[in-house]
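pls design
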C-alpha cells in the first residue's frame, strides 16, 4: 500500500516530466476517440485516482512508435496518479472519465505534450503532435484518498499526528514482509513531516495532506 512512501518518487517523476514551462496554445485541444468502452462501466477515472494502464506512443507526422509500456518493466502496465502532472498534460486530460477495460486513441498537440523543445531523451522532436493508444486496466483511489486519511486518523480529530503516521507506517511495513529497522521508519516519518507539515505544528492537516485536491476533503 505504500501510500505515503510512494510520494517522494512521484514528486521526482513530476519534475522529470514537467519543466517545459512554455506557454500553452489554448487554441489546440486534445482529441479523444473511444475505441472500446465496456458495457458494464460503474466507475470512471477522476483526478487523484491511481491508474494502471498500458499505452503506446506514436509521432503523428510519420507514425514512428517512440514509446511502448508493454516493452518496459517486464511488460507490467504503468501506475500513475491522474491529473497531477505525473504524465504529460495531454494524457492527464485524455484519461479522465475512463473506465477499467476502456481503450482510447488520443491525439495530443505539442502544447499539451513536449512543446517547442521536444524531449530528446524520449525521441520526441520539437513541435510534435503525439498519438497514444491507451488501455486502462484499473482505477483505484489515489495515494492520498479521503479513505486513507480516515484510516490513519485513528482518534478522528482530523489531524494526522506523528504517532498516528508512525503506527500506519509500521502496519504498512509489516504487510511488506521485508523487515525494516526502527531507524529507517523514523527517517521516513521525519521525511513525511518535513515535506508535508507546512506550518510546522507537528500535525498534517487535511489541507496539507490533500495535495491532489480531491473534492471530498
Ligand atoms: Ca488524529
Ligand atoms: Ca501542520
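designed seq:
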Amino acid at each position: 500500500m505504500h501510500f505515503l512512501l510512494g510520494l517522494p518518487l512521484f514528486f521526482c517523476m513530476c519534475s522529470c516530466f514537467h519543466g517545459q514551462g512554455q506557454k500553452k496554445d489554448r487554441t489546440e485541444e486534445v482529441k479523444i476517440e473511444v475505441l472500446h468502452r465496456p458495457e458494464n462501466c460503474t466507475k470512471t477515472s477522476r483526478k487523484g485516482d491511481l491508474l494502471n494502464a498500458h499505452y503506446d506512443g506514436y509521432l503523428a507526422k510519420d507514425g514512428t512508435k517512440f514509446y511502448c509500456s508493454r516493452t518496459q518493466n517486464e511488460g507490467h502496465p504503468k501506475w500513475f496518479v491522474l491529473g497531477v502532472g505525473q504524465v504529460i498534460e495531454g494524457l492527464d486530460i485524455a484519461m479522465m472519465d475512463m473506465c477499467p477495460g476502456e481503450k482510447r486513441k488520443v491525439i495530443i498537440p505539442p502544447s499539451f505534450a513536449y512543446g517547442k523543445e521536444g524531449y530528446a531523451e524520449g525521441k520526441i522532436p520539437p513541435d510534435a503532435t503525439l498519438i497514444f493508444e491507451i488501455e486502462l486496466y484499473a482505477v483505484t483511489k489515489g495515494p492520498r484518498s479521503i479513505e486513507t486519511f480516515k484510516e490513519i486518523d485513528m482518534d478522528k480529530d482530523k489531524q494526522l499526528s506523528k504517532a498516528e503516521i508512525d503506527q500506519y507506517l509500521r502496519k504498512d511495513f509489516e504487510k511488506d514482509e521485508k523487515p525494516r529497522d526502527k531507524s529507517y521508519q523514523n527517517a521516513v516519518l521525519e521525511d513525511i513531516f518535513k515535506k508535508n507539515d507546512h506550518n510546522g505544528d507537528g500535525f498534517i492537516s487535511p489541507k496539507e495532506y490533500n495535495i491532489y485536491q480531491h473534492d471530498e476533503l
